[in-house]
Write a structure and sequence with these properties.
Blueprint lengths: L15 E7 L4 E7 L6 E6 L8 E6 L3 H18 L3 H6 L5 H10 L16 H15 L1 H20 L2 H13 L24 E4 L2 E4 L1
Antiparallel strand pairs: 1-2, 1-4, 2-3, 5-6
Helix pairs in contact: 1-3, 1-4, 4-5, 5-6
Amino acid sequence: MCENCREVNANSPLEFVISVRHLRKSRRHIFLVRPGSVPFPVHKSFPQGFPMSEVQLTLSLSDEELQLRDLVREVVKKEVVPVRAHLDEHNEYPRAVLNKFKEAGLYGALFTEEYGGLGMGMMGSIIVSEEIAYGCLGVGTAMLATKLGALPIEVGGTKEQKAKWLPALASGEKMCAFGLTEPGAGSDVPALRTLAVKKGDRYVLN
C-alpha cells in the first residue's frame, strides 16, 4: 500500500467502504473494502483542483436487500455447492438447481413488480448474480441467461408481448435463451450476419 494512502477500517460493519484521499495535485487513490478484507487500491485520475481533499462514501444494503442476499446465499449453500463439481464434470445443465431457484422465488428479484417481480431494480439483479456466481459461475450464467434473454422484450417488446412473457419469466415458470455467437463473428454484435425475415405471420432466421 502507498505510504501516503489512508488506512481503511476493514472491520467496519458496513457492506462497502470507498475511501478517496488526495495524494498529489491531480491524483487520488480509491479503496474498495469489504469487512475483514485487505484494502484494494484502484488508481484514478481526477481533475486538478478537485474540491474535496478527502471523501468517504458508504454503500450499504437495505433490510429488504439483506434478506434477499441471505436467502440466495442459503439456497446456493444447500443446492449449488454440493452439486457444482458433478455439473462441471458431466457437462450437465443445472435444471434441478434452477427449479430450486424457482421454488425460492429468486427469479422475481430480476423483474419489476408490474410483471410479477419483486421490483428491486438493478441491485436485486446484482445481489442474485454475485451470490450465485460465488457458488458456481456456470449455474449463475445459466440462471441469469433468463434476464439476458428477457431484456429485448423489456426494452423493445409490445405491451402484449410483455404481458405474455415477463410474468412467466419472473415466476421461473419459463426460462429464456440468448443467441449471439456466429462462426464468423464470435460475440461481435455489429459483425453478425443472421437476419430475421418476416414471412406471413412468422419470421425466418437465415
